[in-house]
């Protein structure tokens, strides 16, 4: 077996106590590994397979570390497995929760089985909900329909500039999104509006996430969303994060759990920023680091851009090499995804897929795990690594 050797890369020393076990989970957002058996029930009739279809669409891409660890093999791409100094256990996880999005995916990893789908609004939100929202924020709204975020600010941005009315829209996911120009509506005011929406969006309109979508620009030069997005999720049920506590979250992860169980850190908004935050996390004393790298999904999956998706994976591969160099003998790294988002199909929405999973350690025995039922296997593996009494899911390290 040919082994890929890592090139030397700078990575900060860790503050973790030698001999204290640590778990790091990195979620590559939207990187599905093939259609789930129930994909048709979620509207995915064209056999999505996100990473494999990206590979095929661009004629292959250069991600040697992802390949050597088995991440690409888990996605159905022929690979030579083996990385000097590391063992890797790789395979796929099948989501059992009723969803195909970041909230249900991350929640299930931490032991939450969402057995009832959150509501979606293919025809816009009910009139009584919108009337209550407008009454509480004291202003009319625009939109109230499913739309692509970039398309709706292009369509309604000029009217928003003239009136100051916030743009409300949804998607195939269970989301209530509010878009405002940062020079028209101050960012804190936008967040206040979203908190109002979160208060109002209770059963039966208990949308999974209310999302602030600030943007800038002009009708003449075009509009562009900024990186001050903020998510306001439906409260998470009790889960593994609660039991661990003081979790170091990177990217959107703390927001998906309402911040509960996470230490206070700066919210990062792009893969470049997440990479810096992950270095800081690994130099901290955190026992559990939970990171999401969302550019594959947000910038390329939703925009049907396989070339950009492939380049994003290549860039992440460099980040991953640095993470591996920083792993101690007592560390365990889990690399996975939360759902699919195939940029080669007709839809711009998430896809119901298996997700790849790779468990990496310096003293781990390598193995092809095949398919595992339930993404809660991630949490079970974290719990075993940290020596916790946790009964939900099947650990991937035996």
Which short descriptors sum up this protein?
398 residues, alpha/beta, Alkaline Phosphatase, subunit A, Alpha-Beta Plaits, 2 domains, seven-stranded mixed β-sheet, six-stranded mixed β-sheet, 13 strands, globular
Question: What's a quick, concise take on this entry?
Answer:
The protein folds into two domains: 22-115 and 234-386, Alkaline Phosphatase, subunit A (3-Layer(aba) Sandwich); 127-232, Alpha-Beta Plaits. 32% of the residues lie in helices and 20% in strands.
Write a structural description.
With 398 residues, this protein is α/β, with parallel strands linked by helices. The chain has 2 domains: 22-115 and 234-386, Alkaline Phosphatase, subunit A; 127-232, Phosphopentomutase (Alpha-Beta Plaits, 2-Layer Sandwich). It is 32% helix and 20% strand. The protein has helices at 50-58, 64-69, 71-74, 102-109, 127-137, 149-163, 187-200, 240-244, 253-256, 271-282, 295-301, 306-326, 377-386; strands at 22-28, 87-94, 142-146, 167-170, 175-181, 209-218, 222-225, 230-233, 248-250, 288-293, 331-336, 355-361, 367-373. The strands form 2 sheets. The chain has a 7-stranded mixed β-sheet with strand order 9-10-1-11-12-2-13, with helices on both faces. Strands 3, 4, 5, 6, 7 and 8 form a 6-stranded mixed β-sheet that branches. The radius of gyration is 21 Å and the shape is globular. Mean pLDDT is 94; it is low at 1-18.
């Amino acid at each position: 077996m040919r082994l890929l050797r890592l090139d030397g890369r700078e990575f900060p020393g860790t503050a973790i106590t030698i001999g204290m076990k640590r778990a790091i989970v990195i979620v590559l957002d939207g990187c599905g590994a093939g259609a789930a058996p129930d994909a048709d029930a979620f509207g995915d009739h064209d056999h999505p397979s996100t990473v494999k279809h990206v590979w095929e669409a661009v004629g292959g891409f250069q991600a040697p570390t992802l390949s050597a660890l088995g991440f690409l093999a888990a996605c159905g791409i022929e690979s030579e497995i083996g990385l000097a100094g590391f063992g890797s256990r790789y395979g796929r996880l099948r989501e059992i929760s009723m969803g195909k999005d970041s909230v249900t995916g991350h929640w299930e990893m931490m032991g939450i089985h969402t057995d009832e789908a959150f509501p979606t609004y293919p025809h816009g939100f009910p009139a009584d909900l919108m009337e209550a929202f407008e009454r509480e924020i004291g202003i009319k709204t625009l939109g109230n329909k499913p739309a692509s975020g970039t398309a709706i600010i292009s369509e309604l941005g000029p009217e928003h500039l003239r009136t100051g009315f916030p743009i409300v829209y949804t998607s195939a996911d269970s989301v209530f999104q509010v878009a405002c120009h940062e020079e028209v509506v101050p960012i804190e005011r936008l967040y206040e509006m979203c908190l109002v929406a979160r208060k109002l969006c209770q059963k039966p309109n208990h949308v999974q996430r209310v999302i602030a979508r600030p943007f800038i620009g002009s009708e003449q030069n075009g509009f562009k969303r900024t990186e001050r997005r903020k998510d306001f999720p439906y409260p998470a049920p009790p889960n593994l994060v609660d039991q661990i506590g003081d979790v170091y979250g990177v990217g959107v992860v703390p927001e998906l759990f309402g911040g509960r169980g996470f230490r206070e850190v700066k919210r990062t908004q792009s893969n470049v920023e997440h990479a810096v935050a992950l270095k800081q996390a690994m130099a901290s004393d955190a026992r559990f680091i939970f990171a999401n790298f969302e550019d594959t999904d947000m910038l390329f999956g939703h925009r049907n851009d396989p070339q950009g998706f492939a380049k994003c994976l290549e860039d992440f591969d460099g980040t991953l090499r640095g993470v591996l160099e920083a792993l101690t003998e007592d560390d365990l790294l889990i690399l996975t995804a939360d759902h699919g988002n195939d940029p080669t199909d007709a839809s711009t929405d998430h896809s119901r897929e298996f997700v790849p999973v790779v468990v990496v350690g310096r003293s781990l025995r390598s193995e092809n795990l095949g398919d595992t039922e339930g993404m809660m296997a991630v949490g079970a593996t974290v719990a075993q690594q940290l020596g916790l009494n946790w009964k939900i899911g099947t650990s991937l390290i035996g």
